[in-house]
UniProtKB/TrEMBL annotation:
Protein name: Aminopeptidase P family protein
Keywords, alphabetical: Aminopeptidase, Hydrolase, Metal-binding, Protease
InterPro entries associated with the record: Creatin/AminoP/Spt16_N, Creatinase/aminopeptidase-like, Creatinase_N, Pept_M24, Pept_M24B, Peptidase_M24_C, X-Pro_aminopeptidase_P
Single GO MF annotation: aminopeptidase activity
Peptidase M24 domain sequence ranges: 309-520
Family membership noted in the UniProt record: Belongs to the peptidase M24B family.
Residue ranges constituting the Peptidase M24 C-terminal domain according to the UniProt record: 532-590
Highest taxon in the source lineage: Bacteria
SUPFAM superfamilies to which the protein is assigned, alphabetical: Creatinase/aminopeptidase, Creatinase/prolidase N-terminal domain
Keyword Oxidoreductase in annotation: no
Organism from which the protein derives: Sphingobacterium bambusae
CDD domains per record: APP (cd01085)
Amino acid sequence: MAHKERLTAIRTEMNARGIAAYIIPSSDPHISEYLPERYKGIAWASGFTGSAGTLAITQDFAGLWTDSRYFVQANDQLDGTGFELVKLKVQGAAEYAFWLAEVLPAGSKVAFDGQSASLAVARAVEEAMGAVDIVVDGHVDLLEAVWLDRPALPNGPAYLLDERTTGESTVSKIERVKGKLRDKRATAHVISSLDDLAWLLNIRGTDVKCNPVVLGFFLIEETRNTLFIDTAKLHQDEQGRLAEAGIILKPYEDVFAAVRSLDAQRILLDPKRTCFAMYDSVPNGVKIVEDINPSTHLKAVKNEVEIAHTREAMLKDGVAMTRFFKWLEEHVSHGNLTEISIAEKLQEFRAEGKDFVDISFDTIAGYLEHGALPHYKATEESNATLRAEGLLLVDSGGQYKDGTTDITRVVSLGEATAEEKADYTIVLKGTIEGSQAVFPKGTRGYQIDAITRRPIWETGRNYGHGTGHGVGFFLNVHEGPHTFNPSNVDIPVEEGMITSIEPGLYREGSYGIRIENLVLSKVLESNQFGTFMHFETLTLCYIATDLVDTSLLEKRHLDWLNAYNAWVFEQLAPRLTAEEASWLKEKTKAVY
């Protein structure tokens, strides 16, 4: 079916069930950012493939509500589908709910699938509709009725990591989580988020592209711990290892019945990472304690074993990036390279590294105006051919069994203009300011965001996305609870966190610039004024200097850039061929 036909099928089913409006969030029962194919309902219905958005469908209007990162992409992908782009004024806000409350008559019914909607979404809809006497039903999966070839749940294998890789046993991690539960006086806890489950149980899988996770739920009670999973994914030996850790295995689909029969006084659930259907399964006599999953905080602070492994992953990734950019420089003039083909080549270089598993997200290879789309992904229709001119932005990463990487670099494929150099240098200045920040313990991410943006703001420039996100250890490339963005998120930057620093600048229709490194939060010193922290840069890949306008940088910025590039050469050269090392030596020459 074409997208218009799919929209018609949804409306026909809505009409048969007396539903005036149907909402499809970008989510799954685990409130994941990256979804198994079965839960990509927005893409199936509308053609929009971005990772953030909500469809709201009535009989006379169908809209996609999404934020500024996806405006250009949404306009292109929604063309001719029957869906229209509705531009969010506030990122993440449930503006579609208030629109429905305005246009629907009292007594109407609004529905959504509670297994694919977070509690936050359900509450926003119920609040908006309750004020105008509109009925809400959060237990309707219309897609199951109209998506005739809907993919089944993934059934790829899962496996356990040993303590030499993770630095901590599953038993120890569970005890630490239980300690946090006791602090909250909670006697039960359901973990739905896949990366939390993966970290806690030292388990990895193949159920979601680019994210080494396995579908499952974990129920912690006072006297037992239960993993709900398709046991066919696990080898018998690994099932035995889980049993030795005191973990009972039950079928994946049994989790809701288990929650409905809970014998507990207080259950802790994370409202942002638990689906509405799970909340609705909690018996009336059980008090729900709403808080962030304890494992989310614990997972964000990497131990020394994880940090050491991550440094090794950065070395392998740096070798791959060096070989890629050398290859790109040597072949771009041939005229046969495209955005898709260079992304595939970069993956080939990464795959040569020991213990490479997958890329950590779909590579963003944005040439010229495509670089101005922060979440661009080349398609057969948009796939641009590279020429020996203009700017190329490459945002990519790898999943290795010893770490996760995420890096963005911009290179010029020809002679750069004065404007391109000025924009590049201002963004680089922001990256350096953020990387060099010294800050008191307890500093929040929005303060690091402001430090990074300051030199960009001073020139009357800005960017619409956050400055940084947490990164997992051989896990999701986007990891909470901390974040470096303007939002007033009350999570301190702690020692051991790995975070990106990635300011940018985008000129729609022309080019985009973003320079991203991963950094490790560390204590610098403690004195009479308190404890102060700083960042250690982990990412190993040269930063192009032919785009730098040195007149726009202070000496301390140039010193940082030269020291960084010299360090990159020193670390990577022993792993490169003589020819590759000679090429990198030239790229890392000091500038003044």
